[in-house]
Structures are given as structure tokens and as C-alpha cells.
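Sample 1 of the test manifest.
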Amino acid sequence: MNRQTRIANALAQALHPQHLEVEDESHMHAVPVGAESHFKVVVVSEQFGSHGLVARHRVVNRLLQGEFDHGLHALALHTWTPDEWREKGGAAPASPPCRGGSKTR
Amino acid sequence: MDVLARIDGQVKHSPIVIYMKGTPQFPQCGFSMRAATALKECGVPFDYVNVLDDPEVFQNLPRYADWPTFPQIYIGGELVGGCDITLELHASGELKQMMAAAVAKAASQG
């Protein structure tokens, strides 16, 4: 099972998202082919309703701790409630291009 | 000094500090660049720590903050978030207000 699938499964199981996108963006960065290091996640879940953004990101980061411990390096993260997602028209911002810093880790 | 105490000192001493890869003038990571640009656009002075120049902070900041990635932005001694949250706060106009309030509070405390 690749990292993309593992991330999707972990988040789907814990957060029962109404909408979930997991994208491997490693090819945008200065890492070897197949590095599975840089990901973008959009997760829309009712469970975020009572939490601020820092708490929401911590929930997701904790669910993915095992991946961070084993080579997950960057996570562009967009965590919204279904209402917020509707207000935003159902689209997340594009991730930035690399500037070389991940070579050092 | 213990590295966590050193980080805590930086975070509490600066009204606004960003831990980033590179500098605001020469960022070395796309996420760090976007976050630093958002802070600059607010027109309020801020401090930065280049984690690529400070391996000890690089290694230990994630456990200080229970936050696994860089950049990390602190305003008024509190973690505001990373790149994505900072950009959302900038888009809504909250970021500038938070930065201005933190600077004003620090000034009033001398």
C-alpha cells in the first residue's frame, strides 16, 4: 500500500470526511522519484466544527504521526467543515513550488 | 541552555517570530516563502529564525510545539500555525490585526 492510500485510509477511518483529497506532490520538490515526501490533503469533516485551525491540524498531524516518522516531510493541509467548504466553493489553494530546502533533511 | 528553554525564550521574547527555512529575503522552501510573504504584506515588523542555520532548533521545534512541519509562526507567544493557516488568516485580514495587537501589547509592557 503506498503512502497516499495509507493517508487516505487513516483520515477516512477517523474523520468520516464528507470530502477527502490526498495528492502526492513530491514531484514538485527536490527529492528522488518515488520519495512520497510531500503531500496535499483537503479534508472536509463535521468533526472539525468545534475546533480552531491549529487544533484541526494537530488532529490530522497526530493521525499521520507514523508517516511523519517514516519520511513524510511536508503536508499542505486544508481542514474545513462542510459549511466552510461550501462557502469556499469547494476548492483548495494550490501548493507552492519548491525552493530547495528539503534537500537538507 | 536547554534547547527547549532557548526556543521558549525566543517565542516569548518576540511579539511575532517565524521559524522558517531560509530568510524572508531568501527563503529556501515554498511554504516558508509564502508564510514570510504574508507576514511582510501586513507591514508589521517581525523576527525570524532560519532553522537551516540552527540544527538544534530544527530538530527540537516540532516537539516543543507538537507540530511536525516548518514554517511555524508564533504571535504573542502562541503558535498560530504553519503556512496554510497563516495564509487563511491573511486572506481574512485577521493576521494583520493579530500582529498589530501583539506589537502593541509588547510595547505597553515595555
